[in-house]
C-alpha cells in the first residue's frame, strides 16, 4: 500500500481472494512458481475435510480484515465452481442476506 500511496494512485483497488480449496495443489503450484507457503498456513490443513474448510474460511477472513484495515473494501472472490466455501466466508463476515 505504501507504493500506491507514494504514486498517488486514486483508483479503488479490488483484491482477489481465492480460498485454499486443496493445500497440496496450492503447494505444488507454489513450488512451480518458486513461492513458499508459510508453514503457519500449511499446518492448519490435514486429512479432515471439515477442518480444511474451516482453515480456508479463517484464512480468507483474516486476509479480508487485514485488507480492510489497509483501506481496501472491494473484493473479487475466485470460486472455481465451489461457491459453498465463499458463501461460508461471506456469512461469517455478515455479508449475506
Detailed description of the structure:
The chain is mainly α and 97 residues long. It has one domain (2-92). The chain is built from 5 helices and 2 strands. The protein has helices spanning 2-6, 23-33, 39-42, 49-69, 83-92; strands at residues 14-17, 74-77. The longest helix has 21 residues, at 49-69. The mean pLDDT is 89.
Helix content: 40-55%
> What's the main sheet like?
2 strands, parallel
Rough shape? globular
Order of helices and strands: HEHHHEH
Q: Report how far apart the termini are.
A: 31 Å
What is the averaged pLDDT score? 89
| Strand coverage percent | 5-15%
Instruction: Compute the CA-based radius of gyration.
Output: 15 Å
The total of beta strands comes to: 2
Q: How many domains, as an integer?
A: 1
Number of helices: 5
Class derived from helix and strand content: mainly alpha
Keywords:
97 residues, mainly alpha, two-stranded parallel sheet, 5 helices
Quick recap:
The chain has 97 residues and is mainly alpha-helical.
Please give the structural blueprint.
Elements: H1 2-6, E1 14-17, H2 23-33, H3 39-42, H4 49-69, E2 74-77, H5 83-92
Parallel strand pairs: 1-2
Amino acid at each position: 500500500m505504501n507504493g500506491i500511496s507514494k504514486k498517488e494512485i486514486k483508483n479503488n483497488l479490488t483484491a482477489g481472494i481465492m480460498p485454499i480449496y486443496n493445500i497440496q495443489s496450492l503447494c505444488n503450484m507454489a513450488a512451480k512458481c518458486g513461492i513458499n507457503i508459510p508453514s503457519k498456513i500449511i499446518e492448519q490443513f490435514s486429512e479432515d475435510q471439515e477442518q480444511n474448510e474451516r482453515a480456508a474460511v479463517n484464512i480468507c477472513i483474516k486476509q479480508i480484515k487485514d485488507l480492510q484495515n489497509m483501506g481496501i473494501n472491494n473484493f473479487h472472490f475466485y470460486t472455481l465452481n465451489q461457491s459453498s466455501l465463499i458463501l461460508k466466508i461471506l456469512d461469517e463476515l455478515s455479508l449475506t442476506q
